[in-house]
Amino acid sequence: MIILNIFVFLLPPESGERVGYAVTVLLAIAVFLTISSDNLPATSSPRISSISLLLFSDVVISAVIVLMVILSLRYYHRDDNYPVSTFMRGFVNVSRILRCQVCCCMRKKEKCNGKDNKEKIKWTDVGKEIDIVCGIFIIVVILVVNALYIIDVTVGLPGLD
């Protein structure tokens, strides 16, 4: 279910279903946590069980995703009569430059390094860049949390006993 959360950043902002989708996945994870907590023992000898920690972290990650989606949609649907702040223009430019440096496509690098990068940045661009940055950030967080869970289950993490 946590993998389904990542796909919220791929939904188009114009569809109007992004927040509903994110909240639905959050509620599904919360229900699964409730059902699984009934089947787990009330106490564990040295500490809380690893699966409970993983499910709780999934709920927290899902709640953060809901907040990120709301934030990005707020910027995406902002009226263009309000000028884009210098900070947000810098955020969009830095995000684009970093993505161009990581990209393998040489044609895309030439486009990013060219003089065409001085285009007018709109609020929709800010919303899209926030989606990209948040999506990458959430993927990294999910990978780290699940890697820690797998390490804890297989060999045990030091200092947690």
Automatic annotation (TrEMBL):
Residues 2-80 form the Neurotransmitter-gated ion-channel transmembrane domain. SUPFAM superfamilies: Neurotransmitter-gated ion-channel transmembrane pore (SSF90112). Pfam families: Neur_chan_memb. The chain crosses the membrane at residues 19-36, 48-71, 130-151. One of its GO terms (biological process) is monoatomic ion transport. Keywords: Membrane, Transmembrane, Transmembrane helix. InterPro entries: Neuro-gated_channel_TM_sf (IPR036719), Neuro_actylchol_rec (IPR038050), Neurotrans-gated_channel_TM (IPR006029). The keyword rRNA processing does not apply. The keyword Transmembrane applies. This is HTR3. GO terms for cellular component: membrane.
